Description:
It contains 10 helices and 10 strands. It is of the alpha/beta class. The chain has one domain (47-265): Vaccinia Virus protein VP39 (Rossmann fold). The protein is globular. Keywords: Methyltransferase, S-adenosyl-L-methionine, Transferase.
Amino acid sequence: MILFNLLETQLTREHSFQEMIKKASIYRHPLANHLMDPEVQKESGEDGDDRTVVAEIMRRCFVPAFVTTIPWEGFHFAGHEIRINEATDCYGAVVWPSALVLCYFLETNVKQYNLVDKNVIEIGAGTGLVSIVASLLGAHVTATDLPELLGNLQYNISRNTKTKAKHLPQVKELSWGVALDKNFPRASINFDYILAADVVYAHPFLEELLVTFDHLCKETTVILWVMKFRLEKENKFVDRFEQLFDLEEISSFPSLNIKLYKAMRKNQKSACYPQRRMWKAKPISGRLLL
Length: 290
């Protein structure tokens, strides 16, 4: 009896310690930190729908029971447990709130946006979470980002899709505006969907990003793009984007300052195409802290 009581006490302590680690870790997530901001809570106090959906998205996240040498976060999407390796020294190797919003949208709108056997490309894939979810939902996925991010991207995608996905995703280098005709020739690409999460912020390569959208997008391609608004430069990009694409706001999350857009190419007569720059663009990744 004494041994049983000691064992029960030890298990209780271990459980409490695990819960403490979980709480400490989950509040380090950028989305949780943002939502705990009193000013954010005050601003979104009247928007019940927004807070309810964001809370549901947060419930899809989990953390290791114990501290590990390699930082990772867990997520529940598309009926699977997904583990993502992250890096704290690189914006492109961290899961940001916009990616969670897009994953949740894809999972909860499978009837309207059925990805089964569709050709999908993600630009600025980062850790690969969005590409993994799209793959688990049945799509042919091409996950792209800068060369220095491809190792971790490939690891996360292989780890979470092998034997689980209908079609194994591809991982390819894509620096915005660089060698597009060579690496993604127009004659051979035919993407049904372009996915993008948090690829726009105040950097000097927004024109190259716009050229990349334009190059990859056919007449029937649907762009699903989640954007966090931070500075006026981002608003100007949206205005520029609308010169080429018909843009529809699908969802808005005021507490996160995030919007989810659907876009399709305008017809050629009404579109105002950006002039392509002749020099080689410097690679840039679309990532920024909250």
